[in-house]
Amino acid sequence: MDTPEYLDKLFSLADEYIEDSPYSNTPVLLLSRLVEEIGEMAGLVNRFEYTGTNKQLHGEHHTGTLTKEVQDVILAALSLARYYGLERELKISIEESYKRLKS
Predict the structure, then answer these.
(1) Alpha-carbon distance 7 to 61, whole Å?
(2) Nearest-CA neighbor of 66 among 85, 44, 83?
(3) Structural domains of the chain ordered from first start
(4) pLDDT per residue as tens digits for the range 24-59
């Protein structure tokens, strides 16, 4: 799938993500939501790695839950990018990075 097309789909999902919390549409609240999602993802990574007493407390890990949290982190970050109107610049940056990787 072409990166810009894929990113457009992600931005559409980010729009829905923002609409789900209409009170989270200021930069500070968007950033707070991103930090919250990162914290949730960190907790799941911690469970995947079985550090501390997590395995005893929470049992086995589930990849579907971690997948959802990774998506939430991406959408929260894209919501912040969308707030600042960075869609075009982000697409260009991703394309340039990808081209450098492939060359």
Answers:
(1) 29
(2) 44
(3) 3-102 (1.10.287.1080)
(4) 688 999 999 999 999 999 988 887 777 656 566 666
